[in-house]
Specification:
Blueprint (H helix, E strand, L loop, with lengths): L3 E7 L4 H28 L2 H20 L3 E8 L2 E8 L3 E9 L3 E6 L10 E5 L8 E7 L3 E7 L3 H10 L2 H9 L2
Helix pairs in contact: 1-2, 3-4
Amino acid sequence: MDNCCEQNVQKARTTGDTVKTVLILFLAAVVAAACVFFGIVMGIVLIMIIPAFGVGALGIWLAGNLNIEYEYILTNNEMDVDKIIGKRTRKRMITIDISKSLDFEVYPPKGEISRDVTVYAGTGLSNDAACLLTEHADYGKVLVVFNPNKKMREAMAQEMPRGLRSKVTENE
């Protein structure tokens, strides 16, 4: 029987994200206003409205790119981690084989973990974060930091090596 599970998590907004959003929108408004003012002074208002709308749209698009979500898709023993930017763009970050997992623990880990690559795909809050160390064909040892819910952990436990199954479900 197939083992399928899917979970979306929203990256927590930081003060820096809010400041960037406000700054982008403010600069876009200033440049758009400058375009309109320049058009009034030069007598070409209709021509300068087009760049003003373009700059405004660009500012809104850039501010929307600061909204980030992650999606974990588990199908049998493969877990895909996707990054969704502004609810428009989906990028595959990594595909890992859960059956090749080496360790699973709460984040931050108690000791130093030897790894080649780290993939951060979580909310940014460490209160429910976990880290999964796995072997990857292209990247070597990969540490994935993410926020699996109870349903995702149970689905992962079914595909993990027997020694790790209890670690996944006990850290809920």
